[in-house]
Fold these 2 entries.
Entry 1:
Amino acid sequence: MVADTRQTLEKLLHSFSTAMLVTRSVDGTLRSRPMAIARVDQTDDVWFVTDIESGKVDEIDSDPVVNVALQNGSQYVSLSGTAAIIQDRMLLEEMWQEAWRVWFPKGKDDPNISLLRVRTIEGEYWDNSGQQGLKYLFEAGKAYLTGTRPAIDEDVHQKVDLR
């Protein structure tokens, strides 16, 4: 079952192109911002690009514990992990996407562009797509009519240790 839940999480994770990166500011408040996903690697670490002058860099330097939240229709993923700013020009060259030029007009040679890696520790998913969604609607309707809580299949919601 563990392998199946990890595979499900990985499949869901690879279906997203954007995420909300949540950091903790220096004063302790949580800050969220949308980020384009640059890569999800074999260990389920999530990579982004960022401007080295961005406030999120200071927040990560102060407290590297982050959350990455992803949502698409009836599929949701939450990842907990630690973030790090990675200055690796060869890796940036390998990952470069021309669409990033909008944010970095000098391209991959922009001195402010940096990689941001989130080393994932735990993942959690909810997948109500396809037949799971129909089953959930049935269970939710039944729960509403009977005054009970809906029964949720294990296939719909799982926590996954990614260490």
Note: The chain has a mean pLDDT of 90.
Entry 2:
Amino acid sequence: MSISVEEQQNNPLHGLKLEILLNELVDYYGWEILAVATNINCFQKNPSIDSSLKFLRKTEWAQEKLEAFYLYKFKHLPRPSDSQYDLPPRQRLIPLDQTPGEPMELTVQLLQTLNERKAERAANFRGNSRGSSKPRSARPQRSSSRPDNNSQSSSPADPWAKFNAEKK
């Protein structure tokens, strides 16, 4: 797959240093909104540009999360296709007809409501995918398929008793 120069240059992250990206986001949104929106701890307690940059440079997942926030919330680009979603944000191809828009207006309360909805959907998804809405403690226990080895030489207190008895 050949990438044209125009397609790569259409990505707002092309040629953008992490420090400039972070400064733009902090100037527009502030530390509190960044902390709630990205759920990255370096933005929560005593945040600073230097400490955040140090963490982001060492932690690839956090850097990708912040870059995705920059593309889809700050630059307000449409969501990527499934094939592009698998790539890191810096390597994604932005079609030439898509241009960055105005930044989304975010508040802490709005982000907290969105996070609560995400958590609810995730809990419902996990609960439905198992096929049972009952908690584990309420489900009947399955009988074990392992043979019952209740010999006189082994006891539940000493797991090595049988081995030691055979060794003698």
Note: The chain has a mean pLDDT of 83.
